[in-house]
Amino acid sequence: MSCNHASTPTEGNLKLVKNKYDELVDPTLFKQIIGSLRYMSNNGPNIAYVVGIISRFMSEPRSSHQLVAKRVMRYINVTLGYGILFPTNVNGVTTNLIAYSDAD
């Protein structure tokens, strides 16, 4: 909980590659982190893209891949309290919310 904050889930123009010279990390821990992030991406679509990218490296995770996963976790830590509040009654006026979605 007491970590540096990250204002975005990933760096701009991030390119992850299978670098055989990078240090290997514990694959079990990496898979647990990615599994948790994939679960969280169902409720937080802002992290879905980067989690999909890091998921490609689950067979041989390297330290650079783990650093990206840690950055996503730092971003989530900062944005836990974010949300949109739609008050139902402001100054005696009831608010109706109408939403549209395009499934294409």
Sheet with the most strands, sense and barrel status: 2 strands, antiparallel
Helix/strand structural class? mainly alpha
Strand order of the largest sheet: 1-2
- Give the number of domains: 1
End-to-end C-alpha gap: 38 Å
- The coarse silhouette is elongated
Count of beta strands: 2
- The poorly predicted ranges are none
Radius of gyration: 18 Å
- Can you give the helix content as a percent range? 25-40%
Mean pLDDT over all positions = 85
Contiguous helical run count: 3
Into which percentage range does the β-strand content fall? Answer: under 5%
Can I get a quick summary?
With 104 residues, this protein is mainly alpha-helical.
Fold and architecture overview:
- There is one protein chain.
- The protein is mostly helical and 104 residues long.
- 38% of the residues lie in helices and 4% in strands.
- It has one domain (1-104).
- It has helices at 27-40, 48-55, 63-79, and strands at 89-90, 93-94.
- The mean pLDDT is 85.
Keywords:
104 residues, mainly alpha, two-stranded antiparallel ribbon, 3 helices, 2 strands, 38% helix
Helices and strands in order:
Blueprint (H helix, E strand, L loop, with lengths): L26 H14 L7 H8 L7 H17 L9 E2 L2 E2 L10
Antiparallel strand pairs: 1-2
Helix pairs in contact: 1-2, 1-3
